[in-house]
Amino acid sequence: MEDCIFCKIIKGEIPSKKVYEDDEILAFYDINPIAKVHVLVIPKMHIQSLLELKEENKDLLFHIFEKINEVSKIVGVDKTGFRVISNVGEDSGQAVKHLHFHILGGEKLPTR
Ligand code: 5GP
Ligand code: ZN
């Protein structure tokens, strides 16, 4: 996807502050954090949102959640707690059409 910001971050065309990277995924700090700790976890494969997931992506999805667990430890929110959010489509305000999971923590989060 040529004009996808996250694909550009994966290719290194846009710099990011990386937390974790392997062949399948990348975790990096959000440029405009809405909590003291705000990390994004994305697959390197361009998938638009959760709505596009297919059976063949099940290992990738499990890998993402395993690494969300690991990233929470790296950034030090595993003991205090955190929230995982994936925005999908118009009403959610999804701005970047590349599947991503927000990890929010480092402080008490609003309950709604
Ligand atoms: P969405 O609203 O699509 O769920 O979230 C997209 C997130 O990507 C936003 O929180 C926004 O701050 C973040 N973001 C957008 N562009 C960049 C960028 O170039 N670098 C980083 N690190 N985050 C970005
Ligand atoms: Zn992309």
CATH architecture: 2-Layer Sandwich
Radius of gyration: 14 Å
The CATH homology group name = HIT-like
The termini sit apart by 34 Å
Strand fraction band?
15-25%
- Work out the count of structural domains: 1
Helix content: 10-25%
**Within the largest sheet, what's the order of strands?**
1-2-3-5-4
Hetero ligands: guanosine-5'-monophosphate, zinc ion
Task: Write a short abstract of this structure.
The chain has 112 residues and is an alpha+beta fold.
Folded structure, characterized:
The chain is an alpha+beta fold. It has one domain: HIT-like (HIT family, subunit A, 2-Layer Sandwich), CATH 3.30.428.10. Helices cover 21% and strands 22% of the residues. Strands 1-2-3-5-4 form a 5-stranded antiparallel sheet, covered by helices on one side. A hairpin with a 3-residue loop joins β1 and β2. It is globular and about 35 Å long. The mean pLDDT is 97. It binds guanosine-5'-monophosphate (5GP) and zinc ion. The site of zinc ion has 6 residues, from α1.
Defining traits:
single chain, 112 residues, alpha+beta, HIT family, subunit A, 5-stranded antiparallel beta sheet, 2 helices, 5 strands, 22% strand, binds guanosine-5'-monophosphate, binds zinc ion
Could you outline the blueprint of secondary structure elements for this entry?
Blueprint: H1 5-11, E1 18-21, E2 25-29, E3 37-43, H2 58-74, E4 82-85, E5 101-105
Antiparallel strand pairs: 1-2, 2-3, 3-5, 4-5
Bound molecules: guanosine-5'-monophosphate and zinc ion.
